[in-house]
Amino acid sequence: MNISLIDWGIILAFFVISMLIGVFTSKKAGKSAKEFFLSGRNMPWWLLGVSMVATTFSADTPNLVTDIVRKDGVSGNWVWWAFLLTGMLTVFVYAKLWRRSEVTTDLEFYELRYGGKPAAFLRAFRALYLGVFFNVVIMATVSLAAIKIGGVMLGLSPVETLLIASVVTVIYSSLGGLKGVLLTDFFQFFIAMAGAIGAAIYVLDMPEIGSLDNLLTHPNVSDKLDFFPDFNNWNLVVPLLIMPLAIQWWATWYPGAEPGGGGYIAQRMLSAKDEKNAIGATLFFNIAHYGMRPWPWIIIALSSLIIFPNVSDMQEAFPHIPVDKLGNDLAYSAMLTFLPTGLIGIVLASLIAAVMSTLSTHLNWGSSYVVNDFYLRFLKPEATDKELVMVGRLSTVLLMVLAAFLALALSNALEAFNILLQIGAGTGLIFILRWFWWRINAYTEIYAMVISFAVAIFFEVINPNIQLIPIPEDMAYLKLLYGVGITTVGWILATLMTKPEKDEVLVSFYRKVRPASFGWKKVLDRFPEEKQEQGQLPMEIGLMLIGSIMVYAVLFAVGFWIYGNTLSAIIATVVAIAGGVIIFRSWKKMR
């Protein structure tokens, strides 16, 4: 495809603005580690919420959605739509608890909630396990999307694409710290949304598509439109709907959708001005991420089934793309090659924004683990703020280098998504219960982590070769079910067979965080003077359910309006508005 000077000018302007934000915030970010990683704990909800949305608006996300829609239709998206439930649980139950903890990272939480050497080990190990290993895998999937975009739309080699994307991202991330990331995310979010919506509108006007009506009635598309899988085919219903809604959302751990909050979501909540802003940020994120943003991607994915019905059609159109990088997820980038001058510049800038916003967040988040939870805690406790910022900047560069090398070896974003789900299978319930059940200890998490990883290795690497547990290809979801069951039984037994945390650790945590007291009864019976108000957990869970219904109503309302189903669209819209009024009034009453 031909990129005009206008398009290159738009892209260059985007790069310049992103770099200037990093330079502008660099002086304040360099003052202390707290400024570099938490922006002084003074950020408003709207900035944090937009940043969360921008981060999850990764360039691999539209590729992932396209892959899903082309294979399983719109209903296949329940594999990630189900995570709304844990997102809303974080909004109304955990956001305020995280803000009260006043830790610098969610890993520092381990030595607040647990005590002794097991807690220290857990913090150190997960600093490297999550901050380096897991984080690098996530960034590699994002970089893989960049490689595919660069190859299809710009004719760049994988190495050329990674050099351009990573150098700019590393510069502004390492200079501006979290505040630089937040401000750049805010700018990049609107570019990304404008590009996605503009591209969807143009694609619908292509002669091959003709109009929205033609798209929805085309034989390649008409059987892909349902919000729910065909209930007459349980081979689809179980993996696409029942597993995500019944098990996956609470039982698995996945970055950005951690049960109970965690990772960069926790980092945003910890940097909020107060509890109310932490709640508002996560609420905005869940509404935008699940309810409003998917439809431009879905429209382009459906349109691709007309232009490129099969992967072989894309191979023919783009013969220079390496065979190991070909897949259904390539269709999103392939469709964007048809865009006209001006719009293609905006869309390219939006895709670059999607890549950079996600990479920059993961770089700052991963670096915070390396610095705060490993270097400062275990290697050099006396390190100065200047030294910690320097280590943070160096680790930012190293993480990007590792992610780039891994990206060159990956071929498919959905493949990486499924592997990460399997590794985290069975651990999610711990992150939900550890705030409210006093009996959970450091060994609970250590055993869960070891067991889940071992089970994942068995099912992903060993079992396919030896077939010890035969799993039919159309029942691959059994791997997740086995993982959840084995890991959950394992960590419950470990909890009951090991000693509880010491009373002074439990009382200190309860006093600081003030969770609902029902799960702490045995501790409070020994220390009745520590007992606080029961809390409002039942009401918070009720708000979580109302919030989930509201966001799903938004999601379906937009879809029904697009499909031209007016009555259903009106009903869904009314439900969404009613839920929104209840949620907004509840949020306004919070202190």
TrEMBL record:
For the keyword Transmembrane, the answer is yes
Q: Which PROSITE patterns does the entry mention?
A: NA_SOLUT_SYMP_3
Q: Which UniProt keywords apply?
A: Membrane, Transmembrane, Transmembrane helix
Xref: InterPro entries: Na/solute_symporter (IPR001734)
Segments passing through the bilayer: 6-24, 45-66, 78-95, 127-147, 153-174, 186-204, 234-251, 294-311, 331-355, 388-410, 416-437, 446-463, 475-494, 541-563, 569-587
Q: Name one GO cellular component term.
A: plasma membrane
A Pfam family cross-referenced in the UniProt record is SSF
Family the UniProt entry places it in: Belongs to the sodium:solute symporter (SSF) (TC 2.A.21) family.
Name the chain's protein: Na+:solute symporter
**Annotated source species:** Arthrospiribacter ruber
